[in-house]
Amino acid sequence: MALVRELSFALLNDAEESYKQNGKFLEEVLQSLHDVFGEVFVKSADFLETGEVVRYETPNAIRAVLKVGNKKEVYTLFDDINFCHCGTFARVLSGEGLLTCEHVLAARLARISGRMKVNRLTDLQYVEFVSDLVDYIKE
Ligand SMILES: [Zn+2]
């Protein structure tokens, strides 16, 4: 399982390189993403169509929180951390063989394809933002 996970994230790095070179996701890249991530990839592509990914970062860009959302749902993610509070991610944790959820994958694809919006926060705003988030997790 760990190996599959490593390979799948290596695939995302390859997809990023390929996107930089070609300015788009090539058919073969989309196909391999689909092969590896399956239904989660389909849902994440759908999410990118209907929703948005916003990155809230501090001025030095060291810390960032992402909001991935559409009209129906919004999830908060931490940059480069494979974790989400959604139902799909509960299935990742239960060991069903899913690698990640559609929100984490959508965030990554948005970053690769330049569809991520960036909002700058001051350090203080960031602290407030994260403490709101911690309250939300506790609930
Ligand atoms: Zn999720």
From TrEMBL:
Ranges where the SWIM-type domain occurs: 75-112
Any one biological process term the GO annotation gives: double-strand break repair via homologous recombination
InterPro entries: Znf_SWIM
Superkingdom to which the source organism belongs: Eukaryota
GO molecular function terms attached to this record: zinc ion binding
Alphabetically ordered keywords of this record: Metal-binding, Zinc, Zinc-finger
GO cellular component: Shu complex
Protein's recorded name: SWIM-type domain-containing protein
